[in-house]
Each structure stands twice: as C-alpha cells, then as structure tokens.
C-alpha cells in the first residue's frame, strides 16, 4: 500500500472504467499485517481503500500470501473481506524464489489443512476464493463437493474448466520483454521484441512441455487429478530444480480417492 492511494484516486479509478481494484491483506489486525509487510500503517490504509472503493461502487479483490507467518490469519481475513463487500479473494501460496525465499513455507500436511479451510470459508462467505500456485485447492474442492453430493463441474471458487497454471493458459511478460510461464517461474521462453507473444506461447519448447501432463514426474505424473491441477511447476522448479518434478508440497497420494 502507498499513501498515494487516496479516496480521490479510487474515485478516479471508477471514473476511468477500472473493473476491479486489488489490495494486499496478509493479516487480520495491524500487528499481523504490518509486521509481515514491514511498514506500519498499511493495514489501516488497506481497510480505508476497501471502504473508498465500496463508496464509489468499484469491485475489489484482496490478495493474501500464505506462509507460516500468515496462514492462521485466514479466518480473520475472511471476516474482514465479508464485512467490506470484497468480490474476490486471491490466495497466493509461497514459492521460494526472490524475496519469497526468505519466508517459511507450510508443510504438505499444513497445505492440505489450509485447502480444506479455504473450501470451508468459500462455502461460508459470498466472495469467490481463488488460489495462485495452490492447485491442490481444486482437488480438495472436487473431493469435498463429491462427498456433499455436488456436481463435478461446479468447483467452488475455481469456476469451470481446466485449471490455469504456469505456462498453461497463463504467461508473464517482464518489463524487458522476456516471457515467463509465470512470475514465479523465471525461465524465459523468448522475448516479445523478437517473436510475437502468441508464437512464444504456442511453440516454445518450455511452454509445450509445461502443457504436456504426460511429462510430469513422480507422483504428479501418476496422479489421477493431473489434468485438472498437475501440481505447481514453479514450486517444483524452486525446490528441486526440475519444473516437471512432483510438487513437493502436495500431500495427496495418487489412487487414494477414485475419480468415480
């Protein structure tokens, strides 16, 4: 958050036709959020920004980073989102690259617990819940809905269709023009100054490998859910050096839950 974000600026966003404004919130109180962000006063400013957006009718999204320091804050953050009328909650699961390498990750068992918690919160509150680098959520949502007698196609918080992932329906273009599968997988597939973006996405060997689920290794390659999630390729690369390796933070054992 920046002090330059004022009520007038938010109103200007709305006037210019901005569809949705995203705000980061990593704790349910000033101590937790400001301590994580390292800047005093950002929690209070984040809540003010959400109020300003609501006043002018601008939709909002809240982004939360999940780590050992923040995951217990999730229920409290969800309450704030509901009270502020937030439309979407984007929950980012830590990939140990860049500054993220300094943060402590969850264990596979804690990842599983958080996914179930997010599913419960998505059922309790009206906002949409989405995950970034947390493909396990799609499996958990699918399994929970089946136990509840729901339809496979209507996954809570994830919409319908194939899950987007690193290089699969998603690209990240850096300021230099380098094209990466995501902001968390810093392997270049080309540069838009040299080749069209669509050509890079469709034809580069890196992107083609990431989209080919048959190439996945370890338990991700054996997983009955690989076509709808396939693990985090960015996390596999960050922790093992191989973007086709099994996601080290997934607790699922292939074959435990039959598809039908």
Global shape: globular
| Main β-sheet, spatial strand arrangement | 1-2-3-4
**Could you give the distance between the termini?**
46 Å
Could you give the count of β-strands? 6
Q: Could you state the oligomeric state of the chains shown?
A: single chain
Structural class: alpha/beta
In sequence order, what are the helices and strands, one letter per element? HEHHEHEHEHEEHHHH
Q: Percent of residues in helical segments? A: 25-40%
Reported for the largest beta sheet, the result is: 4 strands, parallel
> What is the typical, i.e. mean, pLDDT?
89
Figure out the total of helices: 10
Low-confidence stretches: 153-162
Roughly how many Å is the radius of gyration? 19 Å
> How much of the sequence is in beta strands?
5-15%
Provide a compact summary of the structure.
The protein is an alpha/beta fold and 260 residues long. The protein has ten helices and six strands.
Question: Which short descriptors sum up this protein?
Answer:
single chain, 260 residues, 38% helix, two-stranded antiparallel ribbon, four-stranded parallel β-sheet
Describe the overall structure.
The protein has 260 residues and is of the alpha/beta class. The chain has helices at residues 7-15, 30-37, 42-56, 74-84, 108-124, 136-147, 197-203, 205-211, 218-222, 233-240, and strands spanning 20-24, 59-66, 88-93, 128-132, 172-173, 179-180. A four-stranded parallel beta sheet has the order 1-2-3-4. Strand 2 (59-66), helix 4 (74-84) and strand 3 (88-93) form a beta-alpha-beta unit. The protein is globular. Residues 153-162 have low confidence and may be disordered.
């Amino acid at each position: 958050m920046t002090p330059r974000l004022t009520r007038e600026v938010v109103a200007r966003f709305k006037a210019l036709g901005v569809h949705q404004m995203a705000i980061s919130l990593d704790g349910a109180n000033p101590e937790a959020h400001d301590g994580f962000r390292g800047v005093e006063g950002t929690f209070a400013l984040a809540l003010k920004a959400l109020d300003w957006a609501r006043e002018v009718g601008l939709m909002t999204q809240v982004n939360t980073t999940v780590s050992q320091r923040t995951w217990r804050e999730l229920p409290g953050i969800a309450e704030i989102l509901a009270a502020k009328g937030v439309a979407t909650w984007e929950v980012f699961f830590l990939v140990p690259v860049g500054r993220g390498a300094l943060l402590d990750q969850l264990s596979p068992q804690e990842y599983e617990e958080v996914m179930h918690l997010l599913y419960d919160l998505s059922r309790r509150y009206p906002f949409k819940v989405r995950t970034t680098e947390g493909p396990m959520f799609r499996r958990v949502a699918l399994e929970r809905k089946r136990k509840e007698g729901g339809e496979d196609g209507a996954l809570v918080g994830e919409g319908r269709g194939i899950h987007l992932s690193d290089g699969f329906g998603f690209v990240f273009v850096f300021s230099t023009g380098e094209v990466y599968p995501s902001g968390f997988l810093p392997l270049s597939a080309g540069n838009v100054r040299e080749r069209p973006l669509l050509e890079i996405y469709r034809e580069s060997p890196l992107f083609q490998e990431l989209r080919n689920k048959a190439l996945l290794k370890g338990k991700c390659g054996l997983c009955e859910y690989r076509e709808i999630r396939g693990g985090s390729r960015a996390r596999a690369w960050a922790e093992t050096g191989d973007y086709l390796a099994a996601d080290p933070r997934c607790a699922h054992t292939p074959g435990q839950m039959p598809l039908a």
